[in-house]
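Troubleshooting entry. Yesterday's outputs looked truncated, so today I'm pasting the complete records for two proteins to confirm everything comes through intact. If either block looks cut off, that's the bug. Protein one:
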Amino acid sequence: MTETTESGVAVSGPALPGPDAAFFLDLDGTLLEIAARPDAVVVPKELPDLLSRLRGALGGAVAVVTGRGLAVARGYAGVPDLPIGAEHGAVLDPALPGAIPLPVPPPEWRRAADEWAAARPGTLAEHKTHGLVLHFRQRPEAEPEALALLAELMREGDRGFRVVPAHAAAELRPVGADKGGAVRRLMAIPPFTGRRPIFIGDDITDEDGMAACAEYGGYGLRVPDDFAGRPALVRAWLGRVATAVSGNGPG
């Protein structure tokens, strides 16, 4: 099938899945366009309705799995009872049995991150419950310094964290927290159990989720490859999925 960009250029997209699909969706760069700063994201007004339609078509088997914090992710999605794996799976809502206790960054690490960003205009320190992120999209030359700071913090002792690269950012994340874990835990419960999972993401942090979907006979779709790097095309395609699965029109 094809979708069309605003400029009228036809873009090939993946085939539509069947009614046994389950979706695990990243936010930034997938459902939402990347912004210069993480707090400058613009959420399309149609996104909550799209997610609600997709959930209705698939018996509720739709979840957001994101690096964002839970409150931010839920606010962006705009669907109150939508399952969300936040902070790369470190936080899951609804909470499920079997959660592994995860560490939190000590206060001195958070202070060091804030001081680093304050000394470098155009950067930002983002704090999460179980991690922190140094953003440098507006100042890409700061990447080596960001990685050096996180490496320095890690040398203070093994506190159960690892450094993970992201889109114009460097993240300190608990060992054992990844999007694949969120997929596996949700696939163990209704309405996801027994379905064919599909993970849609745009960068390296989504690969764990895609690998987990493959374990259940599913697969991953990469926004740069399958949707020409355009979240608008992802949303349009998901709308077609909802329509086709609901039987309300052609795919």
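Protein two, checking that the full record survives here as well:
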Amino acid sequence: MLWFAQFTAIFGFSFAFPFLPLYIKSLGVADPHELALWTGAAGGASGFALALLSPVWGLLADRYGRKPMLIRAMVGGGVTVGLMAFARGPLDLVFLRLLQGAFSGTVAATTTLVATGTPRARVGWAMGILSSAVALGSAVGPFAGGLAAGRIGLRNTFLAGGLLLLLAVAPVILAVREAPFQRPARGSLGVLPSLRAAGGGSLAAIAVLLAAQTLLQLAFSGAQSVIPLKLIAIVPHDTATVTGLAFGVAGVASATAAVLYSRVAARTGYRRLAAATATLAAGALALLGVAPGVALVILATTLTGFCFGTIGPATSAMLGLEAPVAVQGRIFGLSASATALGFALGPLLGGTMAGVVSVSAALFTTAGVALLLGVLLSAAAREPQR
């Protein structure tokens, strides 16, 4: 039931998010350079807010429970995404994206709930299954959203996405049961005590994983924000449908990788698998930069989705194995901040590079970030004990 709730929530988010550039264009931003900059600002706004508030939500999750935080994230996301349908200009959209980041965060809330209720030996498998819900929702959402946008319009697409998020609350309230947990002492609720509680060896390992998650999301969201701009140049008509198809196929690849990765990781180890797929992702992003047509864009986007669908759950599993149960809410709160920081900086980096230089330059830059991620995981990460 938790898988279904997460799938529905991500479906709602991704139902409209890939079409931000098209929506901003419909709000009166016609100049391609301005469109790229506003796309970066809107894409990054929610990430900055989420990065600032995720440690707070993680702290509250450890004290009051993970299930209430998941309900809060779904309701907050549903309301703010729905309100985007009524934006009067790009500035309104940026403001609502800030609110979305401040009050949502379903992935972090669900990840913490799963990590604290799963035996250590099954953490990798559980993270893969959860990531498959995220990836599949990200796959079906853009495809369905692209079809809907062509029929009901972009504004109503945002409204429908918000309603889907609110619907995801029902199975959480009715069917999800949180395992009993011990509330930590008040004096241990700070960010630094959370890291110290992980122990000497885990402290450095967690820091490396948090940096890796930032780089992962930086590369992913940076590419995701400019791929629609590339498709606008290639297919000026019916761009929403083609964009939905590209993200949809990539999401299916990501979901497949998330389900299967744990079998490969059992033989190779999480660290080696994540490092190798990060390097492969760099090549796929570079291919996107030179892709001359729709078919190659979809192929490269699919390969990128497969790679990110492996790296994401692998690093989350490593983090879950490194963090003590008593502070996992706070550790995953820090993880959400690290991910959100990358989510914020990625669109800004991609949008700025696309607006000032070119879309291809933006994609080459994200390829460089993915390559840096591979080097970091290979050189500095450690394989956690299972």
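Both blocks look complete. Sanity check on protein two: The longest helix spans residues 200-234.
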